[in-house]
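Study this protein:
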Amino acid sequence: MNDGRLDLAILGGTFDPVHAGHLQIARVVSDLLSAKVCCVPSNIPPHKSSTMATPEQRVAMLRLAVSEHPELYVDDLELKRGDRSFTLETLQIFRRRVGPSPRLYFILGMDAYLNLPSWLGWQQLLDYVHLVVCRRETDQVSAPPLLALETSHQVETAGMLKSKAHGGLFFVDNTALPVSSTEIRKRIKNKDDPSAFLDPGVYAYILQEQLYAAS
């Protein structure tokens, strides 16, 4: 890994808890784009009422999960900012940090991408970043607003994103594991073993903090 690289990809989410699917997507995108990946835990997601783990616990789990992966790191700026976490505001902050020239990428799962038209200022996101969407063979067809976005901004190869700092849309196929934080919380609550989907340090932390066991 070249830690001197300038390109940066951003992966947001509640990470409640962070799991193998998050890490796989982050590492695939890092390798594909030769970029560092910054994991940004949200404070209060606009589309969710709350999280089960505290902000401090979610950050602790993330830092444990990325500790063996130098291409990944954690930034808790949304937690420090407080209130609801709007992606547009976060991406504006990252763009101000790096300046106009470096390439910035924002990583989305297909579920999040399909809900993009409900996000605050979603049509402005490409003013700051490239969108990198990780999809599966079973994913749905895009709604008309997204089809228009794809027509005007989609590129066919990762290399084509490198020609400018932002504004492209690229789909990465078959990168997402069939696992979710909801499923892991359910497994823990039902006393089923979730360890196959969790970093060992994260699972040990969940047991130590007795997370997700209560109803």
Observations:
- Strands lie at 8-13, 36-41, 72-74, 104-109, 130-135, 169-173.
- The chain is about 40% helix and 15% strand.
- The chain has one domain: 8-209.
- The two ends are 42 Å apart (CA to CA).
